[in-house]
């Protein structure tokens, strides 16, 4: 038998600042398996299978182009409409999918959580990674349209800044994780939030420059709201890199990062507190 | 939370652990409900700082599922946990497997724990057997490399090799359980916690599982905690047994004594017993009741064949004639032995306490502990009127005769009744 034995101490008292990241690392294989399971389950017994990863955002983009681009006639700062909406939609759906799939993680996994212990945070992390992979696949589709427009000279990317793309993803992913686990921790007591979250996220989209560029919002209170929204700046940065369009400010980026760190730490603290006894209340 | 330490003689140390649950719908899951109960507390409607102490198990709106459990389990022990439904067995396992946290007290665990509160946790019908093995193994704490190394053993043990790449929703329930148990049985953990998981699969597979568990204890020195209502498997697997009752450890020691203790409920072995009728049982029948019973031996011990004399104090709301008693005997292992009827009835006047005495010959009862259920009914001419039964009546023990009488095998081999002696004659030699 293993000479070095693991010692686990369980007390009634909760230590707030025990974030248990080390334990999380021991279970990294579980995270990978959750992600794999997500994908293999999603498209089982569908005819088109993984093609849905492309079809879904493609049709959404087409609808956005028609509704916002042609009917409402919102400008895109000279960027081809299809590309503008496709980029916005891809990044936003990464964010929203991360939040909504994490928000009811306790309810939807109660049957597993109630029977065996593993770090509960593995599940929300796996959800965000799944959403991230989904986004990367969409990025491939976006890439083909993008090359077409770049070669035709309609789009002028900021080449060097594109190195920062992983950072944008990281910030958005961690931010969504933080928001998601806060909501999920609260839904163990207040189920109402589970209903509100879907609605809330779609409202959030309109407070984010997804279907319109930030530049179309002149000034006043609307701009203040948009600048307070920590996703705004990430969206603009993303389009600045890829499409050469967007209003980027250092202060905005700083706010996004600070918000992300705060919401993530707060979320993990709350989540760890709730996961100890949520089975008694869920 | 986890630190590596040197070898420790203990596997689990539990110190004065309590677990409190709230009764009913106190924990409103809406903000409105939350505010309402907060407002109630504000106005002093109930005490929010409910004292958790040696108080009764149910106090106000809370319920102590575990009420001060202290236990030490050494490395390599196979410990059975038994107790009635609601005694706190599952709660204890939940705390140990960290599904939920204790309200008070501390638990120290030395070693990796694998808990099987259910077989096949995380199994998904759409995934194949192999995919589920990976999933389940990872949930139980194995790394992918560990599962890869054990995959062959797991498949071989599960006996479902032909179907391993088929989605488990196509499995029979037996196959499903076999595969699930195989994963759990191949964990590398030092401590295994199981909640009646062996009560599944066919007989041959159950035996295989038990053997596997026994091997884990004896050959690999693992620690096993096993909760079951199946005394046979407890006997086979465990060398130590804990009886839980009302959230407390009431017995801790060798298996046979524990099982006997659990079956008999030691506290019933009292010469004097009072009976309280629950009104709801007797809404329209509360005419006659037995208030108490006293048996003549204060230690409740009787020799074989020695008669038991019992006095019953009775009371009735109306005048009743011809009340009869029937005593139904249940042996300590739960077997019903037989019944004895009172030879005549008696009359009772309204609202007066009447004491009756029953003398019970015990020549037919075998050594061991007996529980008498007290049934009473009234007979009027050809009219039979059942009144009620006290299921937890008085208990007494027939002593095992001294070894000279060589009668140690009662009940287990010879049956639960001592029939009248046979007449033996030596026949004259026929020439």
| Mean pLDDT figure of chain B | 79
Strand content of chain B: 25-35%
Average pLDDT reading of chain A: 88
Report the order of strands and helices of chain B. Answer: EEHEEEHEEHHHEHEHEEHEEEEEEEEEEE
How would you describe this structure in keywords?
heterodimer; A: 2% strand; B: 431 residues; alpha+beta; Rossmann fold; Coagulation Factor XIII, Chain A, domain 1; 22 strands; 21% helix; globular
Question: Can you describe this structure?
Answer:
The complex is a heterodimer of chains A (282) and B (431). Chain A is mainly α. Chain A has one domain (30-208, 215-281). Chain A has twelve helices and one strand. Chain A has helices at 21-26, 28-42, 52-71, 81-103, 105-108, 110-113, 122-152, 165-187, 192-206, 220-228, 230-243, 250-281; one strand spanning 5-11. In chain A, helix 2 (28-42) crosses helix 7. With 431 residues, chain B is an alpha+beta fold. Among the domains of chain B are: 1-111 and 220-264, P-loop containing nucleotide triphosphate hydrolases (Rossmann fold, 3-Layer(aba) Sandwich); 268-405, Coagulation Factor XIII, Chain A, domain 1. Chain B has helices spanning 31-42, 89-96, 129-139, 144-158, 173-185, 203-218, 231-237, 255-264, and strands at residues 2-5, 10-22, 58-59, 62-74, 78-83, 104-110, 113-116, 191-195, 223-227, 240-245, 248-253, 272-274, 288-295, 301-302, 308-316, 320-331, 336-341, 346-348, 354-360, 368-380, 383-390, 395-398. In chain B, strands 14, 16, 17, 18, 20, 21 and 22 form a seven-stranded mixed β-sheet that branches. In chain B, strands 7-8-9-5-10-11 form a six-stranded mixed β-sheet, with helices on both faces. The termini of chain B are far apart. At the A-B interface, strand 1, helix 1, helix 2, helix 6 and helix 12 of A face strand 1, strand 6 and helix 3 of B. Strand 1 of chain A pairs antiparallel with strand 1 of chain B.
